[in-house]
Amino acid sequence: MKRGFFLFLLLLAALMTVSACNGRRDTDEHEQETHAARPKPAPVATRPNLADSLQLMVRQLDTARRIGCYDEDFARLMSLHHAGAQRLAGVEISQGKDSTLRAMAQHVVKSHEKDTHVLTLALRRDPPGGQEYRPGNARDPFVRRITAALAPLRQLPPLPGNVDADFATLMQVHHRSGVALAQTELAFGRNAEVKDAARRFVRDQQQEIKQFQRWLQAYASASGK
């Protein structure tokens, strides 16, 4: 009798253990399903900044396709150059505090969009001819001029440390590079309409360089630098 009762207790204990294990497994599976169904937090979007915008432009200029035609290659490079200025201006518009620089940034966005459109239309009306230089030849005069024009973008001056002053500083560098690009087109290009656009780029960007310089001088005086 005692032996039968002892076996009954062992069986009961085994059944209770199995039930508990099943219950834990069901609970664990439910928690896993609930966790899997829970939406993952969205990645935090980082605010664009001036340094990243400039570096992106440099990478695009370095990897831009060049076919060996003066006018078309200039137009492609200048369009990327303009797009870089527009991104810099976008940072100033969204994060800058100075009303003068924000107005200049808005002008950059609009004028550069128009300039790019002008270049595109000019080449559509008068498509470029055959190859005029070898893009891979570092000793070619056109290649050397383009390389020299883009070099300042890799040799940046120290930045003051706030968005407004940094924007004005970088735009001076950007525009000097743009003027050198446009002067290269004037020296080598053959498309009259593209050369007219390049002549206007030189004039407009030289004027804007002076505006940025005046702003930086006033900033330095006000901050005692």
TrEMBL record:
- Domain DUF305 residue range list: 57-119, 161-216
Q: Where is the composition biased (Basic and acidic residues)?
A: 25-36
Q: Can you tell which superkingdom this protein's organism belongs to? A: Bacteria
Q: What keywords are assigned to this protein?
A: Signal
Q: Which residues form the signal peptide?
A: 1-20
Task: Give me the ranges of the annotated region Disordered.
Answer: 25-47
InterPro entries the record matches: DUF305_CopM-like, Ferritin-like
Q: What is this protein called?
A: Uncharacterized conserved protein, DUF305 family
